[in-house]
Design brief:
With about 180 residues, this protein is mainly alpha-helical. The chain contains six helices and no strands.
Length: about 180
């Protein structure tokens, strides 16, 4: 018998017969909805790209995908890709947005710069004594993580303080809580 052996042949047959249709598909839904901005611009995360590398990648891709430079039948697809490239550039070139992106992704950037987000109208950044714009990237990262933890803690405390025993409803022994709407 060859060096492949009996055991190796059985493993090979099993792997050939297994077409993957009965496998575990729990990870299928975990693909990101949006493309990774670093990948979209052709940049690596480690080491982090410099501003010059980000600008160069943006310049090359925006020239390639500019809708005005495309034939009419490709114009819609080019506009979509061009917008994605612009979003990626706008996020990665701004050090504060890049920090939020690295922590929370594109959706996190939209939320935090939107209304009531940390950086949006009415957000924690407007309540700061020292402006967030004056912070270094490291100071901003610490401030943003602290803000996220504070927001998470407030959410958890509000959930815990409004809990009532569902099975005990109507019982004279049920303790009501100050935030309970009853």
């Amino acid at each position: 018998m060859s060096s492949f052996g009996q055991h190796g042949a059985q493993e090979f047959r099993a792997s050939v017969e297994d077409d993957g249709l009965d496998g575990d598909y729990s990870m299928v839904g975990d693909y990101p909805v949006e493309a990774d901005y670093y990948v979209l611009l052709g940049l690596s995360r480690n080491p982090p790209p410099t501003d010059a590398e980000i600008r160069s990648a943006y310049r090359n891709l925006s020239l390639s995908f500019h809708p005005d430079k495309q034939p009419p039948h490709l114009r819609h697809a080019a506009e979509t890709q061009f917008r994605r490239i612009q979003d990626a550039y706008d996020t990665l070139i701004d050090p504060k947005k890049r920090i939020v992106y690295d922590i929370s992704g594109a959706e996190g950037v939209r939320q935090e710069w939107g209304q009531l987000g940390a950086m949006g109208t009415g957000g924690e950044a407007q309540k700061q004594d020292v402006g967030v714009k004056a912070m270094s990237p490291d100071e901003f990262r610490r401030w943003f993580l602290k803000t996220m933890k504070k927001r998470e803690r407030q959410t958890i405390e509000s959930l815990v303080s409004s809990r009532v025993c569902v099975f005990c409803a109507g019982s004279p022994y049920v303790k009501t809580y100050p935030n309970d709407p009853r």
